[in-house]
Amino acid sequence: MLRLSTKGRYGTRVMLELALNYGEGHMLLKDIAKKQDISVGYLEQIMPSLKAAGFINASRGAHGGYTLARPPVEITLCEIVSALEGPISLVECISSPEVCDRVESCVTHDLWGEVSEKIESTLRSKNLQDLVYKHRNKVKSRPLMYSI
Question: How many domains does the chain have?
Fold first, then answer.
């Protein structure tokens, strides 16, 4: 089974949460954790990677927290996933052809390369603003739940 790691999935959710609040000031880590149902401890491991990639700004102090470093429309999902997961390759020989002597003659190498390119192209075509729109439409279409 092909899988995106927890770091990639949770990192994307963090970025979505910051995009949902873009322009409204800094968000505290505990608030991001609560809204996305991710432990603060795990977020503390993800945030340095997002900061190092230039996606977020962090500030300390009473009014500190996290914000997006760029507008949501300028940050693609490909950038986020690549920063957290590394190259988008189904198999190692796609991103590092030197690991395999069969690259030139291997038909499956070509297939895995084509699939990897399609995944990367799809992620490159989507940005955080797209996720914000989708999120807001999903939330709007959910029926209200009342409990007594």
Answer: 1
Separation of alpha carbons 76 and 3, rounded Å: 19
pLDDT computed for residue 81 by the predictor:
96
Two tokens, residue 84: 């957290």
- Cα maximum dimension of the chain: 67
The tokens describing 127, both together, are 């940005």
E strand or H helix at 65? strand 65-68
What is the pTM assigned to this prediction? 0.86
User: Which CATH number covers residue 61?
Assistant: 1.10.10.10
Domain hosting residue 77, numbered range: 6-130
Give the pLDDT of residue 143: 67
Give backbone dihedrals phi and psi of 58, rounded to 5 degrees, phi first.
Answer: -125, 140
Contact between 68 and 18 under an 8 Å Cβ cutoff? The reply is yes
User: What 3-state DSSP class applies to 67?
Assistant: strand
Total residue length of the chain: 148
